[in-house]
Amino acid sequence: xxxxxxxxxxxxxxxxxxxxxxxxxxxxxxxxxxxxxxxxxxxxxxxxxxxxxxxxxxxxxxxxxxxxxxxxxxxxxxxxxxxxxxxxxxxxxxxxxxxxxxxxxxxxxxxxxxxxxxxxxxxxxxxxxxxxxxxxxxxxxxxxxxxxxxxxxxxxxxxxxxxxxxxxxxxxxxxxxxxxxxxxxxxxxxxxxxxxxxxxxxxxxxxxxxxxxxxxxxxxxxxxxxxxxxxxxxxxxxxxxxxxxxxxxxxxxxxxxxxxxxxxxxxxxxxxxxxxxxxxxxxxxxxxxxxxxxxxxxxxxxxxxxxxxxxxxxxxxxxxxxxxxxxxxxxxxxxxxxxxxxxxxxxxxxxxxxxxxxxxxxxxxxxxxxxxxxxxxxxxxxxxxxxxxxxxxxxxxxxxxxxxxxxxxxxxxxxxxxxxxxxxxxxxxxx
Amino acid sequence: xxxxxxxxxxxxxxxxxxxxxxxxxxxxxxxxxxxxxxxxxxxxxxxxxxxxxxxxxxxxxxxxxxxxxxxxxxxxxxxxxxxxxxxxxxxxxxxxxxxxxxxxxxxxxxxxxxxxxxxxxxxxxxxxxxxxxxxxxxxxxxxxxxxxxxxxxxxxxxxxxxxxxxxxxxxxxxxxxxxxxxxxxxxxxxxxxxxxxxxxxxxxxxxxxxxxxxxxxxxxxxxxxxxxxxxxxxxxxxxxxxxxxxxxxxxxxxxxxxxxxxxxxxxxxxxxxxxxxxxxxxxxxxxxxxxxxxxxxxxxxxxxxxxxxxxxxxxxxxxxxxxxxxxxxxxxxxxxxxxxxxxxxxxxxxxxxxxxxxxxxxxxxxxxxxxxxxxxxxxxxxxxxxxxxxxxxxxxxxxxxxxxxxxxxxxxxxxxxxxxxxxxxxxxxxx
Lengths: 431, 431
Prior knowledge:
Radius of gyration of chain A: 24 Å
CATH superfamily of the largest domain in chain A: Dihydrodipicolinate Reductase, domain 2
CATH architecture of the largest domain in chain A: 2-Layer Sandwich
Largest sheet of chain A: 12 strands, mixed
Structural class of chain A: alpha/beta
Helix content of chain A: 25-40%
Number of domains of chain A: 3
Oligomer: homodimer
CATH topology of the largest domain in chain A: Dihydrodipicolinate Reductase, domain 2
């Protein structure tokens, strides 16, 4: 087999950067055997040269200026691992303009500034590889673009934020409150010091944009996709969902809503407990998808951490070294993002009510007027009230457009007997 | 993007061959957009030209002689879909000697004659792609060789024969006998007219050899791997396993047994019901694996059928067209197959016994002598016997080498109070 040495430069030397250097060092022989490629790290940019690190690098190779790496005459492939959308953009754009392939795990950058980046990639014929940007331990980008190259994507649903999945699981399994579960995740290092992008859903939202891009060939605008986080998920909803046969998971859905219109949304949803997605525990990620020829498919693995993410980065490095085809948008004109009002699912609704005559009649009459139908209701009783007073009422609707549902909720909110803002979750189906 | 037309020749035009032609026709535009490649089928060999087919092909392109296809001056890539290990070998060998890349779904051919084929592949620098040979709807070959290129394989366990999984599931869920479940599978088209290779375990056994090859870089001999089928799985064992928290599945295991020694075995085993593998229903396939950097990973999808298999073949065709690296053994000298006697698991043992004084003492004394320890026993009572007579006794042992277990079973068989050949299943663990 032909063997070659490929010289790489790293921007960012945190957990993942250290993992990448460690992995290519540890597996030098295996990488050479399997791919014929040996990697040599020639320059690494990091914020703080004085910081102690597990892995020792030749001080000659270190710099605090990313330009020293990208512009280094020997650097053939640039690995961007600093995150963010400003400096990281400059890093990637500069590398591409020099015709250097880029490997990145930066979902925010590609989701928010993908149009500019892929335009540069095309113009300068310099590929961008980003397996590490979505569920590092799951080869979902490669599978969509290569293994399922001949398949139209029928639907995709993923659990692609491990922090949220951990928090929701701890609420479900241990009965922790949201705040307690978040605190635990932070103490265990499963959530960042600032977990905002995880819990507000946008980390998963960015990944969903990339899955939409690779699945359909267009670049969804991050201003058009729908994202809701897990901050307002309540323990009582998790328990109620459980009693009805569902788990609540932060799910990202990507699928055609109508001809040329793709639904891309991320939110806590009810998942039937019998579905494999409901069995994804802790910080693991999973993607369930269906292709028109391959049928149903399911991938499961770690989404974050040095090992899984470095695995994805090194796979991309080998692809870059061998000149494998990278993703480029190929069908910008055929697709748009579905307005969220038009997307249809069933819904779980819980209403806090005053126990007075005619409550159910008022609620069902409004829902009927707005065209929201359902079968069966469930009501809880307030244990502190004197006469077993009804506390709330909940039900699962039939499928309806989200716009119609919102109208109905507005009308319900105006009722005197509804004492708080209605709680709503989508109920996902997989048929 | 550079675009090119690649001319292909097909040997075999059954379900899969028809599926491949249909898929590249239907998705011509998508394939061009995603990969830059358009395929043209220039010659197809089939057994019977007069047979009616769903897909109409230009009669000029048809032949009954595979040599017309392989030697055709315009055919750039040869797709072998006839199965078997004799004519198929000639087809593949002839193509490779002409320097033509080969795409095949033939697990028996590669498992039994892989050494010859990969030697030719290397000698003539002509790649062999075989994603379709193992779980068509699951990109496990590509994932092992590319996505996890930097990972040492820590362990792998797969359900890779849909027919057996269907039969065992129907026995479990519907309480069918083995014979009734097999009959049903045949009527539904889930089992071949001659299902021998499915139910005797060798279809999965061949696939396990290929997973071992891609996972460790050597070619395990089919004479050295251990294979047991599902013919002797009894409904009562499934029920007993279920009551103990296990499902019985035909599982193929590939993992290091000791330094340089790889355990490759296929047999009906007990799987903890909490594991994702236990949740694989019907004709689906799944592979659970662990890499030293990526951690635990799980893939699930259809294993057979026109759509899933054609998806794998067309992915390989694109890889062939783009010159992507195919598998070649890279580490023949470092590995050997573990003798089955040395492989260790826990075991489920059920013994039919005569209810007489001292039975348990005799059994436990033999097991103790042979170094097989266990905690807890379970015994059933014969409902037809007059005095609630003990009918059988079963237990789950601690981990022990299979050789030691066989010794113990031989000694047990010689006891008068044991009335039938002991029933034994491995109990797989995933820690």
